[in-house]
Amino acid sequence: MDGLAALVTASALFVWTHFMMSHPLRAKMVARLGEKGFSAVYSLVSFATLGWMIWEFLNAPIGERWWLPTDGVWIAASLLTLLASVFLIGSFAGNPALPHPGAAALAEREPTGMFRVTRHPMMWGIALWALAHMLVAPRADSFIFNGAFVFLALAGAAGQDRKKAKNMGAAWQHWTSRTSFWPRLSGLAGIGIRTWLLGLLLWLAATWAHSLASLPAAGIYRWL
Fold first, then answer.
1. In angstroms, what CA-CA distances link 182 with 9, 32, 39, 58, 186?
2. Cα 205-115-80 angle, rounded to 5 deg
3. 61, exposed or middle or buried, with CB in 10 Å at 0-12, 13-18, 19+?
4. How far does CA 103 lie from the centroid of its chain?
5. DSSP character for 181?
6. Any idea where the domains of the chain sit in the sequence?
7. d(Cα 89, Cα 125) in Å, to the nearest integer?
8. Left if phi > 0, otherwise alpha if psi is -120 to 50, otherwise beta: which for 214?
9. Helix, strand, coil proportions of the chain in percent (round to 5)?
10. What is the pLDDT along the chain (224 residues), one digit of tens a residue?
11. Coil, strand or helix: which one is 69?
12. In the 8-state DSSP scheme, what is residue 209?
C-alpha cells in the first residue's frame, strides 16, 4: 500500500470507528461493558486509530502544492486558528452536549457565551483548525489528514443533534430552537473577555509549539 492510500485507510478508519462507537454501537457496548468500560475501549480505539493516522501522515509523500501560501493566506489561517482556539475554550462552560447529569437543565437555560455563536463550538473549533492547516499546506496528504477532522467534526455535530434529540427530547429541542448549528459571528462580541484571553493564550502556545516539532512558524511567530 502506497503512502497516500495508507493515509486514506487510516483516516477512514479513524472517522468510521468514531461514528460507529458514538452512534449505532454505543448502546450495545455500554450494555456489555458498562459506562467506564465503554469509555476505556472508546479511548483506546480512538488513540490507536489516531496514532496510525498521524504516523501515515508523517510518512506520506509530500506532493506538489496546489497554490502558493502567501502572507495573505497565512494571515487568514492565523485568524481561523485564533477563532478555533476561542471556540474550543468556550465549549466547556455549561455545554449541554457534554455528558454530565445536569445536561438537560443546561439545555433549558438561556444560551450564553460561545453558545450565542453556535451550539457546537468544540466541533467548529476542530473544523476551523483543520481548515486553516489545509489553507497553508494545500497538498493531497494535508487535505486527506485535515479533511478527515473537518468531516468528523461537522458530520459528528449533525449526528450529535440527532442523538441528543432522541435522548433528551424536549430539552434538546428547546436548546436547538435558541441556538444555531452554523456559527453566528455576530455573537462573538458577547462571549466575554475571559474566553477571548484564554483562547488567545491557547493559540499563542499552540502556534509556538510548531517550533518544537520542527514545523513552519505559525501565527504571530511567522512575522517575528
1. 29, 36, 29, 32, 12
2. 40
3. exposed
4. 21
5. S
6. 1-61, 69-223
7. 9
8. left
9. 75, 0, 25
10. 577 899 999 999 999 998 888 878 778 888 888 878 888 888 899 999 999 999 999 888 888 889 999 999 999 999 999 999 999 999 988 888 887 777 788 888 888 889 999 999 999 999 999 999 999 999 999 999 999 999 999 999 998 898 888 888 888 898 999 999 999 988 888 888 999 999 999 999 999 988 887 778 888 888 88
11. coil
12. G
* Separation between Cα atoms, residue 165 and residue 175, nearest integer Å: 10
64: left (phi > 0), else alpha (psi -120 to 50), else beta? Answer: beta
For cell 477532522, the residue is: 149
155: helix, coil or strand?
Answer: helix
Residue 212 in 3-state DSSP?
Answer: coil
- CB atoms near residue 176 (< 10 Å): 15
